[in-house]
Amino acid sequence: MAIKKSELYSSLWASCDQLRGGMDASQYKDYVLVMLFIKYISDKYAGVKYSPIEVPQGSSFEDMVALKGDKEIGDKINKQIIAPIAEKNDLSEMPDFNDPNKLGSGKDMEERLTNLISIFQNPALDFKNNLAEGDDILGDAYEYLMRHFATESGKSKGQFYTPAEVSRVMAKIIGINNKNTTAETSVYDPTCGSGSLLLKVVDEAEKPISVFGQEMDNATSALARMNMILHNNPTAEIKSGNTLSNPLFLDKNSNLKTFNFIVANPPFSYKSWSNGVNIDEETKEGGRFYNYGTPPSKNGDYAFLLHILKSLKTTGKATVILPHGVLFRGNSEGIIRKNLIRKGVIKGIIGLPANLFYGTGIPACIIVIDKEDADNRKGIFMIDASKGFEKDGNKNRLRQQDIHKIVDVFNKKIELAKYSKMVSISEIAEKEFNLNIPRYIDSTEVEDIQNIEAHLCGGIPNSDIEALQNYWEVYPNLKNQLFEKSKKENFSNLKIAKDEIKQTIFSHPEFISYSNKINEVFIKWQSKNIESCKAINLETKPKKFIHNLSEDLLDAFGNIKLIDKYDVYQHLMSYWLETMQDDCYLLAANGFKAETKRIIEKNKAGRELDKGWICDLLPKELVINRYFKTAQDEIENLQSEIENLDSQITEIIDENSGDESAFANLDKISKTTVGAEIKVLKAELKQDKNNEELLEKQKICERYLKLCEEQSNLSKKLKEKSAKLDGDLLTKFKQLTQAEVKILVVEDKWMKAIKKAINSEMQRISQRLHQRVKELAERYENTLPEILRDVESCQQKFNTHLQNMGFKWEE
Fold first, then answer.
1. Are 664 and 765 contacting, i.e. CB atoms less than 8 angstroms apart?
2. Is 808 helix (H, G, I), strand (E, B) or coil?
3. How many CB atoms neighbour CB 595 within 10 A?
4. Which of 208, 470, 483, 774 is most buried, by CB atoms within 10 Å?
């Protein structure tokens, strides 16, 4: 049975639990990722002739498994597994699997490493037929681990990883695609970290290109090298060294090698950048700073940018992440910026949200460099994307809709109010070559101004009503039904009662018509794509599948007023990440099969308990709703009756637990104790047959027992019916045909969930209109003179009340 991606990720992350305690995430990540690396190359390359990666005899993952439980497991992993693989594949700075300071000593180390190896024996981690392309489960698992490691590594230790969302934006706007690439097309990252940025560009190219990267930290460069191999780029050249003082990619004349594309996320404001750099040589003709200026000695942002510029071919393109300060800082940086702008090499600037990156919380931007046609560039395209994100723990994160919007707007040069603008070089020159985005794009929210005249004299300002113009374009007659002209110029009055606003909006023919239109658009999209959803098979690439599906949804809602197509897109992508992705990978692996599995849990004593069964692909409710609705209704009715009886029993107990009441003599109220109390009462009644108090108590006790008996009988019936339904349901699951499973998964599960999400977006839009109209109505409902008169009346009543009590109020 295939494992869900989310479960696989969880099991991999569980491997980290075997290592926590002796080291922080920035250290234990190396052990986990090396283990993943060895498992992958063993599955894919062990025993394969002429493979780009060599797995020496005796150094495979299976050889590592043989070391489980060995007292010298750490030392043997180092010598028999790690060392031979590192030597044959030019890997340096591999972690020490025999380090007692990190892994414990003796039995602790033996158990920890044995458990870690066991995690990677998961049958789902079988990469023998895995090409690590596109939909590769390994690549996604690696990304998952890297994000979690970066999150846990803390400030300054998470810089090995650029968030995948930012990497995707950079790769998609740099201009690479499968039409303009060949095997000779080159991409370079001068500060490559773990290589995630480079891999995103490779993915975007969609076919093999030449990959180059340099990383100053030896351990991280080894990580990048492994990352390239894991993602089927074994020929990528990753070198270790300081890019600024010792650039290692040179041509035959010892000049900087040039590349078609460059991506980079250099360390922000690196203070020691000039160590080992010959500033005089770099400022001469042919040097990296020639014709631009020398970066400040204690800030390396422009040093990296100028290195990148020098490393580009004459038509080369680059995307670089830098702190916002590069856009406006003065002195030597101001001179460099001015020269860059004048030479036309800056194509665009994208302002990102703060707190995206793991090494810092400061806001950053993407600088887009393009040498092609730089001499004729007349402007710089700017985007302020600082407000588009979601919270993810203690960091911010770009949503799928944020990524898509940035990429669409930048690549198509779409100018949107408060978001994007093509800024002419002449305008930038007028502002002294300051590129601070707020100087050109005012993204501040419009202030909700209180109208003093309306507060004094009443009425709703027409300006507030006209601010809702996007609604009136869709509901033109609704406006006239909500508002009427006031006697005062530039003001209107609410035409209906305040509590009728919601009903008026939601029942208006234009609202209903618009809702129907949204539903029709969805149905058309569903009809167009439902067969492709049902056609998922072993050849399906889930990532390509969701790309096509989501792009078609964007197109479907692209020209619909009021509703934001990117919000609709996000609903689909959120559902994909939460549910649909796991389903799709299960279907791609197994086909449309409703496979069930038992849930076995261990109690505290270690005894296994059968907790029933589940189906990962199909929740039980879906099959119940389609095939066992009558049985389910009967069960729900029984549950309702039981709950009603429970309420009655609780009520009797509450009303008869005080002194002198029916249950006053009982420490605990139950069928047994109440039954015993009835015997006592009957015995007392033999002595005093006409005692009404005793008779009433007996009646209450008997009523309690009757209710308990009814509840017990219903509970027994419920248990029997539930067991029968569960048995019938399991039988039905085993009998489901492929056609039935397709209907259940695609129509009942996916499409209904997506439709519900899109309907919620429609409701959210409408609720905003309702809330705003209600807010305006309430804001100006009472004029200041009316309020003052009410205050005066209240004061008079207060004074009268004081006088009646014999007091006198003196102001």
1. no
2. coil
3. 14
4. 483
**Among residues 380, 316, 381, which one has the least CA distance to residue 176?**
316
Give 256's DSSP letter: B
Name the amino acid, one letter, at 689: K
Given a contact cutoff of 8 angstroms between Cβ atoms, the answer to whether 386 and 354 are in contact is yes
C-beta contacts of 413-417 below 8 A and 24+ residues apart: 413/381
Cβ(554)–Cβ(521) below 8 Å: no
| Rounded CA separation 703/129 (Å) | 70
Question: Using DSSP, how many helices (H) and how many strands (E) does the chain show?
Answer: 32, 16
Phi-psi region of 193 (alpha: psi -120 to 50; beta: other; left: phi over 0): left
**Where does the pLDDT of residue 133 fall: very low under 50, low under 70, confident under 90, or very high at 90 and above?**
very low
- Structure tokens, 76: 């043997």
Contact between residue 798 and residue 804 where contact means Cβ atoms under 8 Å apart: no
* Residue 630 Cα distances to 83, 350, 633, 637, 716, angstroms: 66, 57, 5, 11, 19
* Bridge partners, residue 367, by sequence: 320, 349
Amino acid making up residue 483: F
Give residue for tokens 């019916």: 721
Band (35; pLDDT cuts 50, 70, 90): confident
pLDDT in tens, 791-809: 777 878 877 887 888 777 6
Measuring CA to CA, which residue among 91, 92, 112, 93 is closest to residue 101?
112
| Residue 191 near residue 216, CB atoms below 8 Å | yes
Q: DSSP string covering 517-545, please?
A: HHHHHHHHHHHHHHHHHHT--TT--HHHH
Tokens of 442: 């005012």
Using one digit for the tens of pLDDT, what is the confidence trace for 286-326? Answer: 999 999 999 999 999 999 999 999 999 999 999 999 999 99
Residue 763 is inside which H or E element, if any?
A: helix 752-779
Q: Please, are residues 356 and 389 in contact by the beta-carbon 8 Å criterion? A: yes
Tokens of 145: 């681990």
Closest CA to 40 of 125, 142, 135, 157: 125
- The three-class DSSP label of residue 303 is helix
What single string gives the DSSP state of each residue in 7-46?
HHHHHHHHHHHTTTTSS-HHHHHHHHHHHHHHHHHHHHHT
Q: What is the DSSP string of 310-352?
A: HTEEEEEEEEEEEEGGGGT--HHHHHHHHHHHHTT-EEEEEEP
Residue appearing with tokens 């698992």: 141
Number of C-beta neighbours around residue 95 at 10 A? 22
CB–CB of 293/336 below 8 Å?
A: yes
pLDDT in tens, 593-607: 999 988 888 777 778
Residue type, 225: R
List helix spans (H) across 66-163: 73-76, 83-88, 100-103, 107-119, 137-153
Cβ partners under 8 Å of residue 117, min gap 6: 35, 64, 65, 67, 68
Q: Is 591 helix (H, G, I), strand (E, B) or coil?
A: coil
Handedness of CA 147, 149, 151, 153 (dihedral sign): negative
Angle of the 25-45 helix axis to the 107-119 helix axis, nearest 10? 50
The pair of structure tokens assigned to 496 is 């209906």
Give the separation between CA 569 and CA 373, rounded to whole angstroms. Answer: 35
Coil, strand or helix at 423: strand
Cα(110)–Cα(200) distance, rounded to whole angstroms?
A: 38
**CA of residue 179 relative to chain centroid, distance:** 31
> In whole angstroms, how far apart are CA 681 and each of 429, 666, 690?
100, 13, 12
Q: Are 186 and 259 in contact (CB under 8 A)?
A: yes
Residue whose structure tokens are 């800082």: 329
Mean pLDDT, rounded, of the chain: 89
List, as one string, the DSSP characters of 607-672: -EEEEEEE-SSS-HHHHHHHH-HHHHHHHHHHHHHHHHHHHHHHHHHHHT-STTSTTTT-SS-SHH
Query: Which tokens sit at 326?
Result: 């590069």
